[in-house]
Design a protein that fits this description.
With 361 residues, this protein is an alpha+beta fold. Helix content is 26%, strand content 29%.
């Protein structure tokens, strides 16, 4: 049993909270509290507290600033029709957080600690959980090296925090996004930190994301670092390709190689696709094969998936040498069927056959 101290905040009024959850945007406003735990090699995990959301005081020589020991997770809490609040497969986030910590030579919070901090924060700030299929409370657990010093080594002190923000849709689900294939930059190489959810991975991706924006695209598709030909993932999301159509459609997602983030949504959609009767499997697909398969009609839909966006349809793929439109450039029926099936489970409108949902409040 994790002992968590509570320090109440002087929060917003009920009217202010209602206005925020009615039109939350994405990641712009945060709840009244945050969860915090400290770690040191002498004491282990200690001083676990729910306290008022507030700025952190940082020493200029804090090791995370200089050497990048910083990891995070992303989760959502959903309000069901009966008023209860649930999250989706949080044990997978806890285990991935541990793997990310291990890769960056950081201490691994126990799953019990991770889940207790998430749950108690949501219970405390339950009023911020919106109502509606595309609205949720986005939960951001993160950890960084807090020791002060300039030696290049793993730190001996860390802060683990959880914050939360009411959010709407990341992308408009009724519109298909356009993506840019990056041939100049790579996201991750074998032996690197590709499967860890660490801050440095995202910092290194921003230049390619800016390049995509300059080409009129919403996101970037990454290729492998060795041959620069195999499709890996899109921005901070995993990819799925729909082969064929109707009940005979098949789903393909790039296989995990150590350079891709093992997404919770990705893993769930593999199971859900098979549940819905689509032959869903992992494999490899080259960028040239992707272009040719779209042109021939073999690939009829493409979508990305992740916690923030859930499922985002892709309508156009661009590169320095070739542009292709997928189908009619609009969200496809298989994509939207998968999206609805997943959201229905998450929001309590469909039976949870796999016990994926975890009651928080």
């Amino acid at each position: 049993m994790v002992e968590i101290k509570h320090i109440p905040a002087i929060g917003r009024s009920a009217a202010e909270v209602s206005a925020i959850v009615a039109d939350p945007g994405f990641g712009k406003v945060f709840t009244d509290h945050m969860a915090r735990a400290k770690y040191s090699t002498e004491l282990g995990w200690h001083d676990v507290v729910i306290e008022p959301y507030a700025p952190l005081s940082m020493d200029p020589a804090m090791l995370a600033i200089h050497y990048g020991q910083s990891i995070f997770e992303g989760m959502k809490a959903y309000r069901w029709a009966d008023g209860s609040v649930h999250t989706f497969r949080p044990e997978m986030n806890a285990k991935r957080f541990q793997r990310s910590a291990r890769r960056l030579a950081m201490p691994e919070p126990a799953e019990e600690l991770f889940l207790a901090m998430v749950k108690q924060l949501v219970v405390t700030d339950k009023s911020y959980v919106p109502v509606g299929g595309d609205k949720s409370l986005y939960i951001r657990p993160f950890m960084f090296a807090s020791e002060v010093g300039l030696g290049v080594r793993p730190a001996t002190e860390y802060l683990f925090l959880v914050i939360a923000s009411p959010v709407g849709a990341y992308f408009d689900p009724a519109k298909a996004v356009s993506v840019w294939v990056s041939t100049e930059y790579v996201r991750a190489a074998p032996g690197g930190t590709g499967e860890a959810k660490c801050a440095g991975n995202y910092a290194a991706s921003l230049i390619a994301q800016a390049q995509a924006k300059a080409q009129g695209c919403d996101q970037v598709i990454w290729l492998d670092a060795i041959e620069r030909k195999w499709i890996e993932e899109m921005g901070g999301m995993n990819l799925f390709f729909v082969l064929g159509s109707g009940d005979e459609a098949q789903l393909l997602t790039p296989e995990l190689t150590g350079t891709l983030l093992p997404g919770v949504t990705r893993d769930s959609l593999i199971q859900l696709g098979n549940d819905l009767g689509f032959d869903t499997h992992e494999g490899k697909i080259s960028v040239d094969e992707l272009y040719d398969s779209i042109a021939s009609g073999r690939i009829t839909e493409v979508f990305a998936c992740g916690t923030a966006a859930v499922i985002s349809p892709i309508g156009e793929i661009k590169s320095a040498t070739r542009n292709v439109t997928i189908g009619d450039g609009k969200p496809g029926p298989v994509t939207m069927k998968m999206r609805k099936a997943l959201l229905d489970i998450q929001t309590g409108q469909a039976r949870d056959e796999h016990n994926w949902m975890y009651r928080l409040a």
